[in-house]
Amino acid sequence: MDLMMRLFKEEDGQGLVEYILIIAIISICIIAFGDDVVDAIKVAFNKVIVGLGGTAIS
Questions:
Q1: Which residues contact 56 (CB under 8 A, 6 or more apart)?
Q2: pLDDT in tens, 18-37
Q3: Among 37, 28, 33, which Cα is nearest to 45's?
Q4: Residues 33-43: what's their mean pLDDT?
Q5: In 3-state terms, what secondary structure has residue 58?
């Protein structure tokens, strides 16, 4: 019983679990919305390039 109570009280590894969850959520979003995100980034960069007087990339 002491082992179970100690495991519940210890917080070692909590940060690692939180980082893994964040990475998992970001990965799922990238997989789900990957093409849309890539297209949005291209549009944003093209707006900046054209705004600076350059030629948009395709």
A1: 46, 49, 50
A2: 889 999 998 898 888 888 88
A3: 37
A4: 86
A5: coil
- List the chain domain ranges: 2-51
Residue carrying structure tokens 């940060």: 15
Distance between CA atoms of residues 13 and 45, nearest Å: 39
Helix and strand numbers, DSSP H then E, in the chain: 2, 0
* pLDDT interval class at 10 (50, 70, 90): low
Report how far residue 15's alpha carbon sits from residue 29's, in angstroms, rounded to the nearest whole number: 21
Q: Which two tokens stand for residue 19?
A: 């980082």
